[in-house]
TrEMBL record:
Similarity-based family: Belongs to the class-IV pyridoxal-phosphate-dependent aminotransferase family.
GO molecular function, one term: L-isoleucine-2-oxoglutarate transaminase activity
Protein name: Probable branched-chain-amino-acid aminotransferase
GO cellular component: cytosol
Amino acid sequence: RIVYVNGDYLPESEAKVSVFDRGFLMADAVYEVTSVLGGKLVDFDGHTTRLRRSLSELDMPSPATDEDLLAIHRELVARNGIEDGMVYLQVTRGAPSERDFAYPDASVPPTLVLFTQAKPGLADSPLARTGMAVISIPDQRWARRDIKTVQLLYPSMGKMMAKAQGADDAWMIEDGVVTEGTSNNAYIVKGDTIVTRDLGPHILAGITRAAVLRFAAESQMKVEERPFTLDEALAADEAFITSATTFVMPVVRIDGRDLGAGRPGPVAIRLREIYIEESR
Ligand code: PDD
């Protein structure tokens, strides 16, 4: 596989990042994941806009222009022959000569790394047919989840807690309400209304979320952006998640309890179809 590191396209075995890199030492890094469907980047502009915001919220220098980022994405997709899969991008605050909590001065350039992962058949995942099971866990992440940082240890722990219980993912709960999944936004459907957490520091503003809410509105579906409780979720008719890598994925079980018939619901199925159709 060919990866990109600071201006160079290299075989992955030759790519190097310093041990002093702040991404490695301090999780001082932000990232984006952009899906590739049929060789095409999905929602590239949305991901770049959010990357700009993450960088600016952390006063992190920009590693490249939007045009350069697009060119690098396309080059990697081409060089690795990616039809279906994703491009991962990470920017760190670079590698100063000493470990220090204070940010380095402007002479230290940011680190920019990108790589691809092939996922043949990404759009017809078997999980979309059965639906996924989630468990609820307390949300113990930091309070700026609107910034897409690489502090992913708690979400990784959440994923393992889910696996240990035979589930697919965890929904995180704060003050009784669902914030989001370990790496996705969370939704419930009650009657004809879709409910998902309103934007703010407590969740990531998903790029897939924005697209799906737009498609829902265009299809005359009712949407409420507000906090919803775990109890509301357990009593919902259906539920689903969204992310760049899963698109729209039905949720059929929460904490071992079936939602409705325990099968993917019509709203999730319809939104998944629309999203994939529009992204191809
Ligand atoms: N995760 N919320 C969290 C905490 C996430 O990590 C993600 C994405 C989302 C959905 O955002 P988007 O629709 O822009 O992908 C919501 C990516 C896919 C990841 O970490 O792999």
